[in-house]
Write a structure and sequence with these properties.
Elements: H1 3-35, E1 36-42, H2 46-58, E2 63-66, E3 78-80, E4 87-89, E5 96-98, H3 101-107, E6 113-115, E7 120-124, E8 127-131, H4 135-142, H5 149-159, H6 169-194, H7 204-207, E9 224-228, H8 232-239, E10 245-248, H9 253-256, E11 261-267, H10 271-274, E12 285-295, E13 306-308, E14 318-321, E15 333-341, E16 348-349, H11 353-366, E17 372-374, H12 377-380, H13 386-400
Parallel strand pairs: 1-2, 1-11, 2-10, 7-13, 11-17
Antiparallel strand pairs: 3-4, 5-9, 6-9, 7-8, 12-15, 12-16, 13-14, 14-15
Helix pairs in contact: 2-13
Amino acid sequence: MPRLQKKIIALIVLVFILVVINIIMIKQRTLPTSNHYDVCVVGAGLSGSVIAERYSTLLHKTVLVVEKRPHIGGNCYDYTDPDTGIRVNLYGAHLFHTKYPRVWEYVQKFSDWTPYEHEVLAYVDGKHVPVPVNIRTVNELFGLSIETSEQMDEWLANEQVPIDDPKNSEEMSLSRVGKRLYEKMFKPYTIKQWDKTPAELGPEVMARIPVRNNFDGRYFSDPHQALPTNGYTEIFERMLSNPLITVRVNTDYFDVRDSFTCGRTYFSGPIDRYFAHLGWPKLEYRSIDFERKVVRNTEFFQPMSVVNHPSLDVNFTRIVEYKHLLDQKSEHTVLFYERSKDDGDPYYPVPNPENKELFAKYQEMTKKEKGVTFVGRLANYKYFNMDESILNALELFDKDNPGVAEEG
């Protein structure tokens, strides 16, 4: 073979080798970049979305959000009902309210808000009465004519059972409203909601339910009460719209976590799922079944958007009629009957001594997880209102990134 041909072949081989080496080097450089994220967030609900938004907006970090459900927004997710054109929540009514100026200022970034003060009725003894209990509730149920706060205080004092340190929700209820209201409203509703008597639940369940000594029919008393004008889903779309954020829905974190690396991880799922490999018992939750029913050619089915049904004579806890919210227009209406159950998506932690003790064990394990922060209601086994979830996430971001929060 002529010397020139040998040189050409050698040169071609050399070029080929250099190309192959270059391709390998490029892959080595790009693969870690495409599979590594500064921050990974498990769950695209309120807690996870706040964390993702703050890191991408303020610190310009790459963020991967992994969501098991087929949509973002967590339990706040809403959509337009196809048969009525009414916007509804997939996971039960969500009414935004807060006393925290920081939270109120934060949510203004992502939506216009329409003022709305929520009112709830309970159907008791054939009557619709206000919840929380107020003067009107007592007057209608017991045929009284209380007119002033002083009279209501006196009536309550005569009804209340003196218990200095309530140990459970039964004692808490008796100490606040007395036996008659407890038996009519609080006890049967609690049994349906929790599948436990109030005596089996911690006092905090009933402690967070207000009792009013006036005619105030509002369910909440916070200074900021409103609904997002275009729904909750749009808020999450805006929160997660930064190009630095990658969102994967229909994805179980535990199925894919070995396919990428994270500088830091925020986990907002159930804490017992994270530590399932330990083989410990699961924490107890209550879930909800939603039965949808369209009522055609009807303006309204019930007098308020939410009507509770404490009686044990029916197997549902409440009916939600979303048409009442934001003055929505439709020839028809759509109802959601809610029934509590044990299986399904976890909604409410069951606060009894056994679960509290078990959660404490799981919580102790979180201290051994390097680079992982547990955020939100499921990871903390604690019921959070929406504003509390947002505040919890904002404060965790502050803690992990001191001096940054004031910048935006």
